[in-house]
Amino acid sequence: MEKDTIKDLFEGLKGEFDINEPKSGHENRFLDKLNATDIASVETKKIINFNWKPFIAIAASVIICLGVFTTMNAQPEVMDLASVSPEMSQTQDFFTTTINAELKKLNNERSPLTEQVIIDALNRIELLEKDYQKLKTDLTESNKDQRVIYAMISNFQNRIDVLNTVLEQIETIKELKTNNDEPKNTL
């Protein structure tokens, strides 16, 4: 049979064990040390259980304030005729298409004789376009006031009138040129 190793271990350590009685008050000192570590562990738990709720509330308030500030300072979307109604959208599309077609005709008629007339017409169109941009702002601010809508339509009509008038002037200039270039037959 095997020899009991634990028994051998204790026999080998005989005389090395502290078998004396503890000093008086040992139990009280031990309990004091135990309580001190309990207090220290409670303090670390207080530090570890940091209360984030006030900071989260402050952060949420800052985010809400920034959102409100951004919303209040945001420029409202500028409206045009298309944003008033589907019928006005069709009207705007018609005028835009017509004006673009007239501008193409105008650019096709460029020549040294007509250059100045075309430049003047394009300057007038540009002024009318600037007025239209102001009318878009007015429409937004007035919340779709009918008078502003009529002014916008009138602006489109004025642009078409300018382009038609210039095209008629160009035709007149062409006719005068051909009449002056024809040989005169006098009898």
Describe the structure.
The chain has 187 residues and is mainly α. The chain is built from 6 helices and no strands. The chain is rod-shaped.
Main traits of this protein?
single chain; 187 residues; mainly alpha
- Which shape, going by the Cα principal axes? rod-shaped
- DSSP E strands, number: 0
Cα-based radius of gyration, to the nearest Å: 48 Å
Strand count, sense and barrel status of the largest sheet are:
none
> Poorly predicted ranges (pLDDT <50, ≥5 residues)?
none
What structural category do the secondary elements indicate?
A: mainly alpha
Question: Mean pLDDT, as a whole number?
Answer: 80
Separation of the first and last Cα atoms: 160 Å
Order of helices and strands: HHHHHH
Strand content bin: under 5%
Which range best describes the helical content: under 10%, 10-25%, 25-40%, 40-55%, 55-70% or over 70%?
over 70%
What is the number of helical segments per DSSP (H or I, 4+ residues)? Answer: 6
Write the topology of this structure.
Layout: H1 5-12, H2 26-48, H3 53-73, H4 86-108, H5 115-142, H6 146-181
Helix pairs in contact: 4-6, 5-6
Task: Describe the structure concisely.
The chain is an all-alpha fold. Helix content is 74%, strand content 0%. Helix 4 (86-108) runs parallel beside helix 6 and helix 5 (115-142) runs antiparallel to helix 6.
